[in-house]
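Sample intake sheet
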Amino acid sequence: MFRRRESVPFSFVAEADRFRSNVTPPPRARASVSQLVGHSLVGLTLIAGFAGSLLFGLPALDTDPAPSHGQTSEASQHR
C-alpha cells in the first residue's frame, strides 16, 4: 500500500517547519538619544495621565455619604 510520511496533506507545509534560511537579517538600528527622550516623555505623560485620572476620579467613586448640613433653601431660613 501507498503510505505517506507526513501527517499533513501537502508536503510543502511539512517542509516549511524544517526550512532554515542561511541569510541573516541586518542588525537593528540603535535608537538615537532624541528617540529615547521622546519615548520616555510619552511614557511619563501616560503615567501622569493615569495618576491624575485616578487622583481626580476616586472622590467621585466614593460611596460614603459626605457629612453635609441639612439641605434647606435660603427662603425657608428667613421665616
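Comment: The longest helix spans residues 33-61. The two ends are 108 Å apart (CA to CA).
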